Amino acid sequence: DIVMTQSPDSLAVSLGERATINCKSSQSVLYSSSNKNSLAWYQQKPGQPPKLLIYWASTRDSGVPDRFSGSGSGTDFTLTISSLQAEDVAVYYCQQYYSTPLAFGPGTKVTIK
Amino acid sequence: EVQLVESGGGLVQPGGSLRLSCAASGFTFTSYEMNWVRQAPGKGLEWVSYISISGGTIYYADSVKGRFTISRDNAKNSLYLQMNSLKAEDTAVYYCARDQGLRYFEPDAFDIWGQGTMVTVSS
After folding, report:
1. Confidence (pLDDT) at A99
2. Are B27 and B77 in contact (CB under 8 A)?
């Protein structure tokens, strides 16, 4: 089974500053045939269901602001919020969909400093 | 509007059963694979189960295998989760989530989520 880890557990960032969240998978989630990583990022605000932000490690879902970006390949991935806004306060989860059992990371809580 | 609405949650005693439903609307249900994901109070997300469009391919998390059964009724645009032999650790909000549908028979990311239904297992 693929195990997902995230760092840090939480981070406080000033408005307008950059937030960086790391995600690591215990084995590669790269499909060599397509050269795509089966890695997604979700945002969950209190009392709401998760929202898909990024898939294939770096493709923004429809309507997601371009301040959100994803990068990485193989086992190491990063979600970057280039200029934190008040509405970005949330818990962020990475997820691998390379193989079952599908797995989420433990989450990273982002707050305003 | 694309929408998923879960129902069927509630309080059940350990060892009991519950059937969750998820009603889909605003999209062609028969074009998408579906999933159940749960979230224990104050905890992270845990994938529970996946079902292909025809229902012929199904996967479960080890934590629910042999106790939970996922199914779908494409004529009713509905997804189900039959939960038997419930344990306290099954207490969670249960979400149904739509697979993006970029690839068939291979899970993709989850692009649409319902609001969830709460299941509490307690005596």
Report:
1. 95
2. no
